[in-house]
C-alpha cells in the first residue's frame, strides 16, 4: 500500500505538469485582452507598455517557465517565510493578480473560508442527509418513503441551483423575510446573536447545494445497498440469527459503503472549486466567484493558478479514493 | 439441554408447505398470477437421519429448504421443528431458535461476507446468541476450524483468499458454531470440484456421526444423495412425487419421474452401463406459474392415462415408509 501510494504520487507529477501546460496554452490561445477593461482614453502606445509590463511581450515558453518558477518555488518559499519568520524568499516574484496587483495566493486565502463554510457545509449536510435516505430507500424499496425519496432526488438532480436558489430567495427573503438574500462576508461571529445571524445567512445557499449533493449521494447509496441486499451473504447473516439492524448496518452497509465512500471522496474537490453559480446567486464571495470575475477580467495569473489548484485537488482526492478503496475492501491489494 | 421428545417424534414435521411468489405485471404492478415454487409439500425428518431432497433445477428444492428454516416467507402450511410450530412465529422468535437450525449454502463464494475475516464469520453467531468471553469465543472458533479441517493460522484471513473447498469448510464451521441439531445443506457440493466434493461430503458424514446432526441434503447429484441419505424425497415442479428409504427407492423406483431421473445416472460398472437405458422425457418442465391440470407430470409422463390429466394424485403410502404420488399406484 505504501509503495503504491508513493508510486501514484510520483506519477501525479508528470500528470500535473501536463495539466498546467494545457491550462497555460488554453488561456494563451483564448481571446481577450487584459487591458480591455481600462478606460478608452489610454493611448495605444501606453496600452502596449502596460501589456509589456505585465510580461505579455515575452514568448510563450518563457512566460510558462516563469509561472512555474513563481508557483512551485517562489510561493512555497514565501509560505515558509510566513510560517517561520525567517526570510527564505528574499525579493522573489510571487504570482500577482493583474486585477488587484496583490499576490494571487493571498486572495485565495482570503476567499477560502467563505467557500469552505458555505459549500463545504452543504457537502457535509448533503452527505449526512443522503446516507440514511439511501439506506432506508433501499431497505424499503418501492415503499412510499422510497418513492418520495426518488422524487426529491430527481428534483434535486434536474432543477438547476440558479432556479432553486432564486426560488428560495423569493419565498424566504422576499415573502417571508426569514433569511437575508445576500451573504454578508464582512459579518464577524463574536457572540451568540452574531452566530445566529451567520447561521441565518448560511441556511439558504447551504440548503440549495445540499439538496443537489444529497440527491446524487442518496442515489449512489441506494443503488449500492440494493446491490448488496440481494447478496447471498445477507441470507447467511439472517440464518445466523442476527438482529435485523445488525444484518443491515454491519453486513450490508459496510459492504455498500465501499463505492459510496469513493464517490464522496472524489466529490470533495468540487467543494473547493466552489459552487460558481450558487455563490453568484447569494453573493458569497468565495473561490467560485473569484474565478468567474478573474475570467471576466482576463486575469490570466489568477485563472491559471486557481484552475491549477483545482487540478491538484482532483488528482489528490482521486488518489485518496483509490487508497480508501484498498483499505475498505480486503479483496483489493495494491502492490 | 433437557430433551423430552417422544421416541418416534420426527425432528422436523412439514405439512402442506406452500411457497408462492406473486407475479406482478402492468403499470400498477398488479398481481396477475403466482409461481408455485413449493406446492403442498409434506415431509418428516427423523432425528439423526439424512433426508435427501432431489429434483431437477428449478423444481423448488432450495425454496423448500429455505422455507423450512423460515429464510423464505411461507404462503401456507405448517412447519414443526423439535415439537414447536414455527411457521407463524415472528422473526424475533425465529431469531431465538436459529441456533438449533442452520443452513449450509450452495455458493461458498457469495455466501460469505467479503469484508469479514474467517474468525469474525464463525464467531459472529456466538456473540449474538451466547455469552462467552473473548477468550472462550476464540477457543471455540479454533475448535470449529479444527473440526472442519481448517488451519488455525487462517483465522485472520478473508474469504477471497481461500479455494472453493476451503470456503465451504468455513461455511460448515459457521453453521456448526451454535451446535445446531438440524442443518439444511443446500447443494453444498454443487459449486465444488469433483475432487473436493467427496472431501466435503465425508466431512459432513463425520460431523453427523460426532454431533448427531440431522441433515436435509438438497442436491441434484443423485449418486451423492444415494451415498449420504438415509431416505430420499424426489421433487418435481414444487411437489414431492416420491419418498422412500434410499436403498428401496434407488433399487425400485415407483414414480415414473423417479424412474426417468434414476435412469439418467451413469453406472460405474461398464458392463451394466452398456445395458443402461436412459428414459428420455419429452418436452420441457411446465412453468410453475401455470402447471398442467391433473398430475403435474402428466404432459411428460410416458405412462400417463386419462385420469392423470384430470385428477391431481395425492401422496399415499404404498409400502411402510414409502410414499408415492401417482395414479398408477393409487388403485
Q: Give the ordered list of helices and strands of chain B.
A: EEEHEEHEHHHEHEHEEHHHEE
What is the molecular shape of chain A?
globular
* Oligomer type: heterodimer
Task: Kindly state the percentage of residues in helix of chain B.
Answer: 25-40%
Q: In total, how many beta strands of chain A? A: 0
Per CATH, which architecture of the domain at 110-328 in chain A? Answer: Orthogonal Bundle
Low-confidence stretches of chain B: 1-5
Q: Which structural class is indicated by helix and strand composition of chain A?
A: mainly alpha
* CATH first level of the domain at 110-328 in chain A: Mainly Alpha
What's the mean pLDDT score of chain B?
88
Strand segment tally of chain B: 12
Radius of gyration of chain B over all CA atoms, rounded? 21 Å
What proportion of the residues of chain A form beta strands (DSSP E)? under 5%
Structural class of chain B: alpha/beta
Q: What level of helicity do the residues of chain A show?
A: over 70%
Gyration radius from CA atoms of chain A, angstroms = 24 Å
Number of H- or I-type helical stretches of chain B? 10
Shape of chain B: globular
Number of helices of chain A: 12
Amino acid at each position: 500500500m505504501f509503495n503504491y501510494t508513493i508510486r501514484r504520487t510520483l506519477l501525479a507529477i508528470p500528470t500535473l505538469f501536463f495539466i498546467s501546460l494545457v491550462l497555460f496554452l488554453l488561456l494563451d490561445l483564448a481571446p481577450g485582452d487584459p487591458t480591455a477593461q481600462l478606460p478608452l482614453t489610454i493611448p495605444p502606445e501606453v496600452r502596449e507598455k502596460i501589456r509589456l509590463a505585465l510580461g505579455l511581450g515575452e514568448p510563450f515558453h518563457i512566460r510558462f517557465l516563469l509561472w512555474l518558477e513563481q508557483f512551485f518555488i517562489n510561493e512555497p518559499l514565501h509560505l515558509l517565510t510566513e510560517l517561520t519568520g525567517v526570510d527564505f524568499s528574499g525579493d522573489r516574484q510571487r504570482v500577482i493578480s493583474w486585477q488587484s496587483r496583490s499576490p494571487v495566493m493571498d486572495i485565495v486565502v482570503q476567499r477560502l473560508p467563505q467557500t469552505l463554510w458555505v459549500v463545504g457545509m452543504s457537502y457535509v449536510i448533503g452527505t449526512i442527509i443522503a446516507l440514511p435516505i439511501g439506506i432506508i430507500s433501499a431497505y424499503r424499496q418501492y415503499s412510499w418513503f422510497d418513492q418520495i425519496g426518488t422524487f426529491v432526488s430527481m428534483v434535486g438532480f434536474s432543477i438547476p441551483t440558479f432556479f432553486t436558489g432564486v426560488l428560495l430567495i423569493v419565498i424566504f427573503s422576499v415573502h417571508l423575510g426569514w433569511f437575508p438574500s445576500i451573504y454578508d462576508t464582512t459579518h464577524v461571529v463574536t457572540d451568540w446573536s452574531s452566530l445566529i445571524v451567520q447561521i441565518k445567512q448560511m441556511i439558504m445557499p447551504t440548503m440549495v447545494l445540499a439538496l443537489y449533493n444529497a440527491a446524487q449521494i442518496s442515489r449512489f447509496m441506494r443503488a449500492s445497498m440494493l446491490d448488496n441486499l440481494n447478496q447471498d451473504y445477507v441470507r447467511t447473516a439472517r440464518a445466523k440469527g442476527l438482529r435485523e439492524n445488525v444484518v443491515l448496518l454491519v453486513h450490508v452497509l459496510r459492504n455498500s459503503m465501499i463505492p459510496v465512500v469513493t464517490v464522496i471522496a472524489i466529490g470533495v474537490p468540487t467543494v473547493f472549486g466552489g459552487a460558481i453559480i450558487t455563490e453568484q446567486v447569494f453573493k458569497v464571495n468565495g473561490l467560485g466567484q473569484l474565478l468567474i470575475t478573474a475570467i471576466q477580467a482576463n486575469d490570466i495569473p489568477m485563472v491559471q493558478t486557481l484552475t491549477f489548484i483545482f487540478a491538484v485537488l482532483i488528482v489528490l482526492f482521486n488518489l485518496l479514493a483509490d487508497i480508501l478503496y484498498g483499505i475498505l475492501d480486503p479483496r483489493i491489494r495494491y502492490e | 439441554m433437557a430433551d423430552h421428545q417422544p421416541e418416534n417424534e420426527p425432528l422436523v414435521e412439514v405439512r402442506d408447505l406452500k411457497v408462492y411468489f406473486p407475479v406482478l405485471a402492468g403499470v400498477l404492478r398488479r398481481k396477475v398470477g403466482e409461481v408455485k415454487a413449493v406446492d403442498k409439500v409434506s415431509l418428516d425428518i427423523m432425528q439423526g437421519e439424512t433426508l435427501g431432497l432431489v429434483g431437477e433445477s428449478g423444481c423448488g428444492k432450495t425454496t423448500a429448504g429455505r422455507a423450512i428454516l423460515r429464510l423464505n416467507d411461507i404462503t401456507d402450511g405448517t412447519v414443526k421443528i423439535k415439537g414447536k410450530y414455527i411457521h407463524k412465529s415472528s422473526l424475533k422468535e425465529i431469531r431465538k431458535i436459529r441456533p438449533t437450525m442452520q443452513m449450509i449454502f450452495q455458493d461458498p463464494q457469495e455466501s460469505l461476507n467479503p469484508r469479514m475475516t474467517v474468525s469474525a464469520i464463525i464467531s459472529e453467531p456466538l456473540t449474538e446468541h451466547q455469552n462467552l468471553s473473548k477468550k472462550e469465543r476464540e477457543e471455540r472458533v479454533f475448535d470449529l476450524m479444527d473440526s472442519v479441517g481448517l488451519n488455525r493460522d487462517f483465522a485472520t484471513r478473508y474469504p477471497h483468499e481461500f479455494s472453493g473447498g476451503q470456503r465451504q469448510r468455513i461455511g460448515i464451521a459457521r453453521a456448526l458454531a451454535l451446535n445446531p441439531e438440524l442443518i439444511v445443506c443446500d447443494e453444498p457440493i454443487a459449486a465444488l470440484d469433483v475432487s473436493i466434493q467427496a472431501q466435503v461430503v465425508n466431512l459432513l458424514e463425520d460431523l453427523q456421526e460426532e454431533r448427531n446432526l440431522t441433515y436435509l441434503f438438497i442436491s441434484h447429484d443423485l449418486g451423492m444423495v444415494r451415498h449420504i441419505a438415509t431416505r430420499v424425497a424426489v421433487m418435481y415442479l414444487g411437489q414431492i412425487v416420491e419418498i422412500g428409504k434410499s436403498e428401496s427407492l434407488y433399487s425400485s423406483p415407483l414414480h415414473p419421474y423417479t424412474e426417468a431421473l434414476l435412469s439418467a445416472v451413469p453406472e460405474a460398472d461398464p458392463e451394466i452401463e452398456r445395458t443402461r437405458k436412459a428414459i428420455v422425457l419429452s418436452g420441457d418442465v411446465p412453468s410453475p406459474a401455470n402447471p398442467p391440470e391433473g398430475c403435474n407430470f402428466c404432459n411428460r409422463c410416458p405412462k400417463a392415462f386419462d385420469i392423470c390429466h384430470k385428477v391431481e394424485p395425492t401422496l399415499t403410502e404404498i409400502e411402510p415408509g414409502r410414499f408415492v404420488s401417482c395414479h398408477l399406484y393409487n388403485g
